[in-house]
Write a structure and sequence with these properties.
The structure holds 2 protein chains of 2 kinds. Chain A is mainly α. Helices cover 69% and strands 0% of the residues of chain A. Classes of the chains: A mainly alpha, B mainly alpha. Chains A and B meet through α3, α4, α8 and α9 of A and α3, α4, β2, α5 and α7 of B.
Amino acid sequence: MSCWDTVADYALRSVGIGERLLPRADFTICQQITLIGSGMIWNIYFGVLALLSGFFLATALAMAKAAHSPLLRKPAEWFIFVFRGSPLFIQFFFAYFLFLSLKGVFPVFSPLTSAWAGALVVLFFNTSAYSAEIFYGAMQSIPKGDIEAADAYGMSGWPRFHRIIWPTMLRLAWPAYTNEAIFLFHATALVFFSGFPATQQMGDALYYANYFADKTFNPFIPYPILACYFIALTLTVIGLFGTVNRRLNRHLPQTQRGKIRLRPMLVR
Amino acid sequence: MFSYCSEPDALSGLTWLSCYLTTGKHTSLYLSFGTVLTLLAITAPVALVFGFGGASAARSRFAPLSWLGKAYIGIVRGVPDIAFFLFFVIALDQGFEWVRHKIKCPDWDQPIRQGNDFVVCAAAKLPLGDAAQWVHEVYGFLLAVLTFSIIFGAFAANVLYGAMQAVPRAQIETAEAYGMSHRQAFWRILVPQMWVYALPGLSNLWMVLIKATPLLFLLGVEDIVYWARELGGTKTPKFTDYPHGDWRMWYFAALLIFYLLFTKVSEVVLDRIMRRLTRGQATMAGEAQRKAAA
């Protein structure tokens, strides 16, 4: 069986298309590369959707945390504290069993007990909390002069927010937010190890890497393959966010632009 | 535990709960909190040592050593840490067995990797095949500690490397002007001064380490996550005196609260330490303290 046949059989295995049975013996490198790569579909799915949806909630939370009214501020502070103060791993477990209990009472919740929806919800809340803290920090460091200038032009409310505060906040937050995006993608590897079942062995990249390591009892092939995929993903994220960063900073002289620096500081 | 617990069926309400929460298995759950704390207590200093070694290696003037240090710092950047956890546990185990195999059975002629099996001679097995159960558990725990230390050592190396770079260059130049050797300048000038710069990063690392402890579960140690799943699952009257439905949600809610409290307390304590250390420092925070006092 040539490598192309393997790719045809397993390239979309993680979403249930192609050969049903996973390889059981005589594992080839080609099989491992294909299947682990196939699992990356889930990592990208979780990462991209959680980031896109989390961005909006994070902006709202950051606004709420900066608000004067305690009715807005307190809930936002608690939300951020709960999701940043506890391990993501425990959050996954708790959410899974919570959804399981809810499903017993209200059948509406049954999609949430499967990974594609349930884990996405947890990741969405989690990244919202972390990003909200970043956005809040950035909002606090908007130069006073910018706001004063907006006031002088007679701007207030929505125009002031979307023309002055929001772009400046994004610009200041972007390097840290890039970091957050990278570690969100890394965090997606936890999904299938934390309660959420992989139905019909449709799992993410780490799920398949772990499968091969268990079967072959040789961790030195699947995990480096996984590492290569994740490094490629990380570089892609840095590239994409770098483009946005350049656009956000295009009005500034070269020397004042915020640089994206990778800080490996977040296990959740 | 209590004398009235001998007839669990007759109990109800709080008395039932007090008996339920003091069964033998629940004691194991409480002890596993100790496992987590032990892990933290051992890992934190060991990781700091690893980190110090990595950071000093990365600064070395001997190129291969500096590459080694930088590679060590770099490993944690692009790849999810959970992948490292899963990888290191098997890799370390096989590495130890391989080394022992080479030493203890030099005249073994079969290959070590036979298809999907990793075969070493009986004397090289770790722990030995006839070892007691607790030896297996301790070995598993030590492997986990080593894995945590290696990974968090890399994080710490990154922080300490940054801190060493942050010590003003003029300090080292002054040391050189006084005729100190490279080694003397490192130990007498750089190392004592770098901690102030390293502390924010290290306290962040401590929080991260706390939040990484549930991953022990994936390394095969019977930790709090293991017991929460075990005790929370549905229990039928056939196997236990305390039958109940699926309570795993409540057990994980308790763990969630435990971690929230733990991180909150750490935050408060670290804040205090930071405030104590910045007192009198020529930094912005120190200046602000001085002004507030005046």
